[in-house]
């Protein structure tokens, strides 16, 4: 586990060697978490937690971000008082080549098909 600090706050992230396929797939299987990942993938920079307008409670949103971070899908860090989020695209591509791109492409096609 690596620790990233910001203003005395510590966030733990798995080392790339500790990221497991089943954990990544579990994280991506939830519609709210997949929505976060799709938005992060299309963003040009990190996004704060407050950027996301999920139709769930704040505590549930916090849970979803924790699952994404602990599975190795995202990296979270503090900049001032904002907690920022970024995809661990390079780590995921090195460990599971093509997985993230395939999931994002499938999610986009599903969205178009269902008109959501």
TrEMBL record:
InterPro entries: ArsR-like_HTH, HTH_ArsR_DNA-bd_dom, WH-like_DNA-bd_sf, WH_DNA-bd_sf
CDD domains tied to this protein: HTH_ARSR
Domain HTH arsR-type: 13-107
Superkingdom of origin organism: Bacteria
Pfam families attached to this UniProt entry: HTH_5
Name under which the protein is recorded: Helix-turn-helix domain-containing protein
């Amino acid at each position: 586990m690596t620790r990233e600090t910001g203003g005395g706050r510590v966030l733990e992230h798995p080392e790339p060697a500790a990221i497991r396929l089943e954990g990544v797939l579990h994280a991506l299987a939830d519609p709210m978490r997949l929505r976060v990942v799709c938005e992060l993938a299309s963003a040009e920079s990190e996004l704060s937690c407050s950027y996301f307008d999920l139709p769930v409670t704040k505590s549930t949103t916090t849970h979803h971000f924790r699952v994404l971070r602990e599975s190795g899908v995202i990296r979270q860090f503090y900049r001032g008082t904002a907690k920022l989020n970024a995809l661990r695209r390079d780590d995921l591509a090195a460990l599971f080549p093509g997985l993230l791109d395939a999931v994002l492409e499938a999610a986009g096609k599903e969205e178009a098909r269902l008109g959501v």
